[in-house]
Amino acid sequence: MHADYQNPVMRNLTDQQNRFAPREKKIEQITNAEQLIHEIDPQRTYPFDYLCFRITGYRPHSFPSANLSGADAVRDLRLFVEDVSDSTDLEADAMGERVYTVEDLSKQFRVSTKTISRWRQQGLVSRRLLFGGRKRIGFLKSSVDRFVSNNEDRVERGSRFSQLTSLQRNEIIEGARRMASAGGCPAEISRRLAKRTGRSLETIRYTLRQFDKEHPAVTIFPNATGPLTDELKVKIYQKYRRDTPVEVLAKRYCRTKTTVYRVINEMRGRRILELPLDYIDNPRFSRRGADNACLGKMPDAETPTRKPRRPSGLPPYLASLYEIPLLTREQEGHIFRKFNYLKYKAAKLRAQIIPDNPKASLMDQIERLYEQAVATKNEIVRANLRLVVSIAKRHMGQNENFFELVSDGNMSLLRAVEKFDFDRGNKFSTYASWAIMKNFARTIPSEYKLRDRFRTSHDEIFSATEEYRSNPFAIEGAQTRREKKIDQILKRLDEREQTIIIHRFGLDHSQEPQTLKEVGIKMGVTKERVRQIEARALNKLRTVVQEEHIVIEDE
User: Closest Cα to residue 67, out of 4, 9, 5, 3?
Assistant: First the structure.
């Protein structure tokens, strides 16, 4: 059933008749609707209950005040005829009069199939009928005669304009061939020929397309471009974001400007769907007046913030941190509330995006909100960079690189901003301090281990350490046995469970173990679903190990 009805009440009526009306009633309603189309004045407005009564013979109880303009009524009634005939499975041979296909009408009136499509939009009633067991668009002779009698000028103009002589057709084909051999694109060649000959762009395209179809050995465009690959779409979008004009992109990739704009819109939608919009939810986000409460002005500090004393001898980057004032508890709560609320609004809008046809206005709103969220996050980070420096100083060892510690701490700070729940009443500095110190505690010991491993001096370290050399062949043999046993028990899982276990624990040795979220993205499921499958798979593996008494050797 068509999805492009102008008024939802007509779509609802069509759906009801398709589902509940007997076949004989449907045939009667199709005839009534077609008759009504030719009685409607496009300049008038019609009540829905009148239209429904004329089609079905009863007045509806729902939508008593719904009205349709004449133009909308004609369009929706035409769709009604097509959809109801589609559900009736009518044979073309059983219609009692001649039935034309689109191609039949195209030849009879010497117009393109696109012109027939335009006539359908302008009131030519079509039905979906069975032609030899296959459903196609068909036109009753009576419907065609009625349309022609009401639109003589339009039909005559279409036939006269679309009819090309053999000489004109040959001139168009030869002109296209010369331009194609010079490196022209199909879209550009069609535009130039349309301008030169005074014909419509669609007529030129149709003529060239038909010639290539009928003469495959001497085609004008032997390497006609097919659908754009994802790789090409990414390139077009990247060049567009680097300020390459659409006209240049259209010429470079042999596409129309419309196609380029459609690609840009599609890739922009994909990028928005991948934006990191995870937020810490809060009940006040869904309350009335949330915009004023969460996006208002930053509260002033109750007492003037004293400018901190800047330690002497600091490099410019660190010295500049002491110029940024610290946030009060109220300011901190406000800015975190704003940060998460902006992402909350952007995520709600993103849920409305239709991936195949994203709306530019909706994407504009999401991008504005995301940019504001990023700017707010940067404010939080700048106000707390001094904290990273302070903690890095305390963890500074004799052989530590101070700036590497600060860089590592900054990454922990960025993660802490994303995870901090402002509504619990804790200060962010406390939460961030624990996050930074936890990261230092994890990374600094491993650095010491690496340094000890590659130490090239201090012979006393070597002499004080007991020498132990293992047999490499024994280690390799043990590892091979372990891998065989793991492969043996993994075969007891289904394919999806195997994939999750292998990626979660890095068993294929080609990449590091992945998080639940990373595995979920790869498999197209939520991280919660991955966790459930992983837990089920691990239970299966434990059962197998216990039942078969499998023992995996330690290293």
Answer: 9
d(CA 6, CA 43): 16
How far apart are alpha carbons 248 and 246 in whole angstroms?
5
According to CATH, the topology of domain 472-548 is: Arc Repressor Mutant, subunit A (1.10.10)
- Considering just the CA atoms, what is the radius of gyration of the chain in Å? 36
Closest alpha carbon to 375 in 346, 335, 425: 335
Please name the amino acid found at residue 15: D
Contact 310, 319 (CB under 8 A): yes
d(CA 290, CA 252): 48
CA–CA separation, 346 vs 340, rounded Å? 10
According to the model, what pLDDT value does residue 553 have?
60
* Spatial contact of 252 and 219, defined as CB atoms under 8 Å apart: no
Q: How many CB atoms lie within 10 A of CB 294?
A: 20
What type of residue sits at position 536? R
Residue 245 Cα distances to 139, 227, 252, 272, 429, angstroms: 45, 21, 11, 22, 47
Q: What is the pTM of this model?
A: 0.48
Q: What is the pLDDT of residues 183-226, one digit of tens each?
A: 778 888 888 898 888 777 878 888 888 888 888 888 887 765 56
> What pLDDT is stored for residue 510 in this prediction?
66
* CA 537 centroid distance within chain: 32
Q: Which residues contact 485 (CB under 8 A, 6 or more apart)?
A: 550, 552
Count CB-CB contacts under 10 A for residue 144. 22
Residue 223 near residue 291, CB atoms below 8 Å: no
Q: Determine the Cα–Cα distance for residues 342 and 350; give it in Å rounded to an integer.
A: 12
Judged on CB neighbours under 10 Å (0-12, 13-18, 19+), 261 is middle
478, burial (CB in 10 Å: exposed 0-12, middle 13-18, buried 19+):
middle
Tokens of 537: 């798979």
pLDDT at residue 460 in the model: 44
pLDDT digits (tens, 9 = 90+) for 472-515: 556 667 777 877 888 888 888 888 888 888 888 877 766 778 88
214 burial (CB, 10 Å; 0-12 / 13-18 / 19+) is: exposed
- Report the DSSP pairing between strands 127-131 and 134-140: antiparallel
Packing angle, helices 329-350 and 360-394, rounded to 10? 140
CATH number of 283-303+325-453: 1.20.120.1810
* Residue ranges of the chain whose pLDDT lies below 70: 157-163, 223-226, 303-314, 398-399, 444-476, 509-510, 551-555
Q: Do the Cβ atoms of 372 and 342 come closer than 8 Å?
A: yes
Backbone angles phi, psi at 327, to 5 degrees: -90, 140
Helices (H), 125-165: 141-150, 152-162
Element holding 131 (H helix, E strand) = strand 127-131
